[in-house]
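User: Could you go from structure to sequence for me? I need the amino acid at each position, not a summary. Structure tokens:
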């Protein structure tokens, strides 16, 4: 699977007139997101921002094991939090990093800044027949409530 994906990526890059050999880790990440992580070295993955790694981990696709190893190396989550993430769940009182690592990036966000803090509504489309939305609310990066 990885070889065929790399071949496809190489073909696309060839058609686009560039190669991954000339791309920096940041360019590869911007170019293809989670797919880019699959072709990045462990040293390059170690340079990726923690929030981005958590978001890519939440997609549960290519390179998730390598991303998890890097997040474990950074000691971001407790064993209890990894259990929540492994079940693709979230919990009130946990960080937005746990939300990203469990569910990935949201479809959309709405941000409000007040004297009492930064409030964000995270909107996720559920992969159901009607694509119902789930809403998660954070205050200063901590999950405060959820609605589905």
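Assistant: Here is the amino acid at each position, in order:
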């Amino acid at each position: 699977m990885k070889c065929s994906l790399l071949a496809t990526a190489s073909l696309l890059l060839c058609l686009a007139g560039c190669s991954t050999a000339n791309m920096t880790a940041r360019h590869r990440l911007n170019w293809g997101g989670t797919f880019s992580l699959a072709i990045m070295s462990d040293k390059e993955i170690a340079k990726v921002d923690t929030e981005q790694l958590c978001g890519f981990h939440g997609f549960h696709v290519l390179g998730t094991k390598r991303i998890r190893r890097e997040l474990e190396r950074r000691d971001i989550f407790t064993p209890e939090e990894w259990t929540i993430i492994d079940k693709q769940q979230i919990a009130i009182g946990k960080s937005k990093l746990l939300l990203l690592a469990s569910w990935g990036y949201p479809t959309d966000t709405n941000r409000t800044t007040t004297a009492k803090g930064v409030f964000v509504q995270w909107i996720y489309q559920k992969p159901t027949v009607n694509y119902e939305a789930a809403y998660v609310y954070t205050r200063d990066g901590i999950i405060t409530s959820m609605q589905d």
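One structural detail worth keeping in mind: Residues 1-32 have pLDDT under 50 and may be disordered.
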